[in-house]
């Protein structure tokens, strides 16, 4: 356990290159090419985090100034995902999430119940989070562990289901996102999109980045849009002219740089992805294999960033006007791209649909984050997290995600019986997605071939 923890503590920028290098060698990639791929992935991940850091450093203070400028007063503080992940791994139960996550993935791959090979080990903290909350709520260590397992099963199921949508929209071949924050939103976006498609007039409105740029010319360019959004946020924050212009250039820089940093990371992943495809074709004909990566790969898309920046002020004002909400959004405002990045493929890149759908999603999420705040604060204290002057803490990531509500509410009401039932339901979903559905498709194709013959 100590060696594993040391390995994880190296951080994603070191951990990912090692994993990618080993994975590439196993797939038959030449050592030199595998080494270069691993290093490129690590450098790409550092580059992405540098740009995300720029977004956080510029948007965080602006959001705080916006809150102060309008005199908002809410008693539960959004401490942000870095604190949430530290709290999740800081409990005795949460520290077991990584070996459990690896074991679950290996077992599912062995029995053909998932197509996702997850190299994004760090993000097992999402399952550790729900498991730690259940343990804090019930005091049942075994139930907390079982919650982690069931949550992981759901993450792999969602990653398998969304892989084709991710490839079609983002162009990432053989890559999916088993990400506990991002994947759940896609399954909320699907019914929303069904409704949007049936609203007369609205269903004809095209608002993807390419269409906007064609209609508005240079003013429709994603970088220019980022600059204008930065100006709006600066004005709402009460910034002076200098501060507003600085923020505008910083948000424009994020819009321009992040897609390029993602391209750098993809440069390292492409040869590994191709090798994975060839390996599976040779060893397991008819099966697909997806590399499970951090959804940071997706947030560089112009539609994601544009919608996320527009949702920031909406989120702050919703926090105040929604009756019963106690959460003051702050630290996770810069992480909104992670909450909506897999809604965007469902909405076909439509920024207006994403802003509306994402705002509704986060609005509902406020009530989840408010509901879990007492349990979350208890878990934080148990992990020796310093809550400072705040007597109540929560977060938008993962506190405002519907899976958190499901995995905490069910054990609270139904204990082991409820979790076993939902675990079996998810397991059947994996069997259907990876066994029954492919067999049906194969049978239909063979039947069609016989008819044509």
From TrEMBL:
Keywords: Cell membrane, Membrane, Phosphotransferase system, Sugar transport, Transmembrane, Transmembrane helix, Transport. The keyword Cell cycle does not apply. Residues 4-440 form the PTS EIIC type-2 domain. It is found in: Cell membrane. It is a multi-pass membrane protein. The chain crosses the membrane at residues 6-27, 34-56, 86-109, 143-163, 223-241, 289-322, 328-347, 354-376, 413-432. Its main location: membrane. It holds the Pfam family EIIC-GAT. PANTHER family: PTS SYSTEM GALACTITOL-SPECIFIC EIIC COMPONENT. This is PTS system galactitol-specific IIC component. It comes from Virgibacillus litoralis.
């Amino acid at each position: 356990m100590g060696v594993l923890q040391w390995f994880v503590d190296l951080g994603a920028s070191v951990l990912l290159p090692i994993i990618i290098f080993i994975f590439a060698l196993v797939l038959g990639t030449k050592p030199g090419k595998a080494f270069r791929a691993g290093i490129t992935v690590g450098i790409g991940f550092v580059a992405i985090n540098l740009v995300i850091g720029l977004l956080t450093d510029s948007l965080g203070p602006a959001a705080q100034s916006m809150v102060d400028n309008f005199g908002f007063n809410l008693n539960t503080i959004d401490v942000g995902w870095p604190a949430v992940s530290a709290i999740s791994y800081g409990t005795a139960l949460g520290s077991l999430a990584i070996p459990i996550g690896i074991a679950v993935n290996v077992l599912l791959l062995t029995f053909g119940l998932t197509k996702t090979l997850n190299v994004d080990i760090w993000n097992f903290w999402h399952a550790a989070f729900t498991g730690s909350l259940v343990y804090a709520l019930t005091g049942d260590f075994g139930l907390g562990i079982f919650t982690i397992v069931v949550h992981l099963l759901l993450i792999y199921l969602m990653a398998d289901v969304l892989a084709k949508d991710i490839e079609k929209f983002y162009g990432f071949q053989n890559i999916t996102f088993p990400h506990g924050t991002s994947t759940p939103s896609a399954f909320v976006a699907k019914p929303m999109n069904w409704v949007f498609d049936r609203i007369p007039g609205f269903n004809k409105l095209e608002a993807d980045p390419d269409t906007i740029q064609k209609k508005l010319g240079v003013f429709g360019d994603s970088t220019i849009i980022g600059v204008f959004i930065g100006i709006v946020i600066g004005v709402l924050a009460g910034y002076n002219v200098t501060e507003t212009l600085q923020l505008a250039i910083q948000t424009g820089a994020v819009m321009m740089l992040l897609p390029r940093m993602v391209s750098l990371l993809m440069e390292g992943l492409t040869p590994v992805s191709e090798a994975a495809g060839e390996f599976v074709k040779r060893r397991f004909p008819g099966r697909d294999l997806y590399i499970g990566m951090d959804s940071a790969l997706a947030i560089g898309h112009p539609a994601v960033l544009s919608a996320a920046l527009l949702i920031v002020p909406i989120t702050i004002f919703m926090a105040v006007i929604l009756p019963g909400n106690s959460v003051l959004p702050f630290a996770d405002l810069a992480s909104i791209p992670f909450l909506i990045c897999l809604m965007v493929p469902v909405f076909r890149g439509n920024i207006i649909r994403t802003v509306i759908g994402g705002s509704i999603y986060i609005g509902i999420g406020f009530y989840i984050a408010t509901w879990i705040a007492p349990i979350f604060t208890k878990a934080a204290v148990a992990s020796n997290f310093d809550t400072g002057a705040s007597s109540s803490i929560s977060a938008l990531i993962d506190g405002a995600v519907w899976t958190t509500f499901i995995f905490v509410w069910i054990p609270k009401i139904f204990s082991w019986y409820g979790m076993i039932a939902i675990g079996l339901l998810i397991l059947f979903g994996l069997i259907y997605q990876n066994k029954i559905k492919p067999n049906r498709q194969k049978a239909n194709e063979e039947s069609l071939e016989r008819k044509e013959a």
